[in-house]
Amino acid sequence: VLRDEIKMDSYPGWHAILGFVHRATNCGQHGLVLFSVMSLFLLFCLMPIFFLKFPESWVISLLTVSIVVPEWVFRLLLGRPYIFTMASLLAILFMWPRLKIKKFQHINILILTVIAALSVWIHASWYFFFLLFAAFMLAREWRVSALIAISSVIGVLMGASFTGHPILFLKQEWTHLFFVFGSYDVERQL
Q: Fewer Cβ atoms within 10 A, N terminus or C terminus of the chain?
């Protein structure tokens, strides 16, 4: 049950990936759910290992959070596309020290842009990148803020264009942001 304002799929990238996996493996619903849960869980849990000098520190961090807030692990096992955005945020935060270097690095801008484009295409919440930009501005990381802003704008436009209807897509997700806070209707009321 969708609101009248929702005119297109909010997760076109994720559904395209699932469609590709379905065609490539001929798996059914169970297989697609298993793929969703496992791939996103592993992406989130393993991505920081590539950025750390001591990867075991990430494993210890995950274990500590799991002990202190056990329901947190449940959210990682839902297989929902927002986990891709969480992994994207982790990648950007682990890239932070590289972005502080004064020397201009084209590869880092490219990586940030690709992360933003994929995150928008897969999860659709493009406005999260403005929060990331604001956080770096509040931290007085001017260079990092500028790099994030440039790559995010380009990435958001690229990700939206991957949907085939960029203006409708961006507008729909913008209005969705405000409808989340405006109504407390349950599904049967919609």
A: N
Please report, as a single letter, which amino acid is at residue 164. Answer: G
CA 69 – CA 175 distance, rounded (Å) = 32
Q: What span, in angstroms and rounded, lies between the C-alpha atoms of 102 and 179? A: 41
Work out the mean pLDDT of the chain and round it to a whole number. Answer: 86
Convert the pLDDT of each residue in 16-43 to its tens digit. 999 999 999 999 999 999 999 999 999 9
For residues 91 and 134, is the Cβ–Cβ distance under 8 A? no
Torsion of CA 159, 154, 180, 1, to 10 degrees: -20
How far apart, in whole angstroms, are the C-alpha atoms of residue 90 and residue 70? 20
Question: So what's the pLDDT on residue 37?
Answer: 95
pTM above 0.70?
yes
Q: Tell me which amino acid residue 161 is.
A: S
Among 77, 164, 180, which Cα is nearest to 128's? 180
Estimate to the nearest angstrom the gap between the alpha carbon of 29 and the chain centroid. Answer: 23
CB 77 within 8 A of CB 41: yes
Which DSSP letter does residue 189 get?
G
Structure token pair of residue 110: 């490219």
- The residues near 132 (Cβ < 8 Å, ≥ 6 apart) are 89, 92, 148, 152
Contact 84, 121 (CB under 8 A): no
